Amino acid sequence: MGFSKKVSSLKESATLQAAAKAKALKDQGVKVLNLSIGEPDFSTPKSIQNAAIKAIDNGASSFYTPATGLPELKQAIIDRTREDYGVTYQMNEVFVGSGAKFVLYALFQTLLNPGDEVIIPTPYWVSYSAQVELADGTPVFVETTQDNHYRVTVEELEQARTLKTQAIILNSPSNPTGSIYTAEELKKIGEWAASNNIYIIADDIYAKLVYNGNVFTSIVSLSDEIKQQTIVVNGVSKTYSMTGWRIGYALCQPEIVSQVSKVMSQSTGNPAAVSQYAAIEALSGSQAIVEEMRQTFETRLNDIFPIVQEIPGVRVEKPQGAFYLYLDIKETLDMCGYDNVTNWVNDLLEEAHVAVVTGEAFGTSHHVRMSYATDMDTLTQAIRQINEFIDSKRI
Hints:
Blueprint: H1 5-8, H2 14-27, E1 33-34, H3 46-57, H4 71-85, E2 94-97, H5 100-111, E3 117-122, H6 127-134, E4 138-143, H7 154-160, E5 165-171, H8 183-195, E6 199-203, H9 224-229, E7 230-235, E8 248-251, H10 254-266, H11 273-284, H12 288-309, E9 324-328, H13 330-336, H14 341-352, E10 354-355, E11 357-358, E12 367-371, H15 376-393
Protein name: Aminotransferase
GO biological process, one term: amino acid metabolic process
EC number: 2.6.1.-
């Protein structure tokens, strides 16, 4: 008995794989400093937990909901988007899924035919390319550089465009770089996409995690024409520290929602009802806790960044948002005698007991991603052990 070629060629998510390796070492009694996983280290706020408990107690979470989400949750999404973006959507322009990751998966299954191309600027979140391929699409990578703040230009996109180009993915703030597109850059990209009838998939999952006076601009706020061409993907996982609740959503044209609903109805059905009620509270309740968590991340970034800059051989740009540092360690690899970044990452975990994610998972060959979504003691100790590891490997 065999397996499908599609699944056999599929790679496991590198971030989850790194976290699993770290956990396996921990289970053996090793003290691992885990900077690999992309989730806040805060508990879900009490008000959100209490809303879920209330939904359980009154029986509201006991039954199926519409496949694309509760009407009350869709309204909360519309209201939150209007307040944050200054843009209004209707109920038939929203769908909810079991996490933003599955929302993206469902979108690719809906939008792509075999051979359709999706432009993905590198470095990119690890699952974009795999999800495109699972939908029989073709990922087309456009390399960005640290010198241009890891942001793609219209000229670069135009060089990559073909008659098969169906969509482009924009992730701002970016996982893994933390870079944010300016309003001017987004307007140029949006107008280019609209003029070529190319969907913009705007992954806004880190939109609230912006630091040091930098500004997030929603591409859909720039013009009605761009809004019509854009699919906004978001969720509650990062902003409200609800990664385990698995609620993501998208805002887009009604005809896309109606087609995605078929995928939802034949796959997951509705997202967990109790999680939907929790998400209603997250989006419609007090947003004070969001700012508290954002300030904590900003403080950590400002405290740890100068220390990271001192790691031998490292080049790194200070992130504008999200909660990752993307380190160019090409010189570090050379001084340690490595010609492969993944081998360096594996040895760092096995020998120095620090878990980071290889840049190869994000489409670059000499970077690593380090999460600062953990306490400062862990961060500073991890940097100390990384420095010691590098010293021990110098040639």
